[in-house]
Amino acid sequence: MTDASSSSVFLATRALGISTSLFLSGKPSLVLSQTSFLLPASNKPGYAFSASQLAIPAIALSPVPLRLKQWAVIYNEGALVSPTFAASSLLLWSYSAWSSYHSTSILNSSSGADWKLYLLAGGLTFSILPWTLTVLMPVNKELMRRVKVVEERSSEAGGNNFGEESGVLIKRWDRLHFVRACLPLLGAWVGLYGALRA
Question: What's residue 173's pLDDT?
């Protein structure tokens, strides 16, 4: 695991731990829970955008067989981080929604809608998993199949050229991945808006 994915998992786990301990202590603090998840919520989109904006253009300069292997590294690192991030973010946003909902009163009616914003933020952030499973997974599977073929043929002289259709497939993956990266960013913006309104 790379330093970037280690730090993302660490931040998400730490935020989850802080919010869980607040919940279990019986003294939930909405402000502390909001600040504990805003950092990981804004970190994941940056991590994801770096693949689309930095890594994919760089590997596009490589020959197709090497490009496929490099894509596999990017994919495998993301597969380690994304599910943990999505699940922990959903729990943290849900906790903030719950805390906001239970902290509303007649005197403070403006925060009545904030819990819905936190729930929407959680849904947007978590939606990276259904997006991946329904839209991106067929492309992932085809690219991984090609990676295996390239690895099997690498010992054969001249047998590892898979053609430019693999490069086109990586570009397609990049576009779909970019959309997926926008989902937690939208979630972070919605959650931040809710926190600033409170």
Answer: 94
Cβ atoms of 76 and 4 closer than 8 Å: no
Place of tokens 């819905």: 116
Locate 112 and state its tokens: 């009545």
Query: What is the domain count for the chain?
Result: 1
Between these two residues, 47 and 149, which has the higher pLDDT value?
149
Residues constituting the chain? 198
Query: Which structural domain, as residue segments, surrounds residue 160?
Result: 3-197
Q: Report the alpha-carbon distance of residue 12 to residue 89 in Å, rounded.
A: 7
> Do residues 147 and 66 lie in contact, with contact meaning Cβ atoms separated by under 8 Å?
no
Count the Cβ atoms, other than its own, within 10 Å of residue 175: 12
Per-residue pLDDT band for 107 (boundaries 50, 70, 90) equals very low
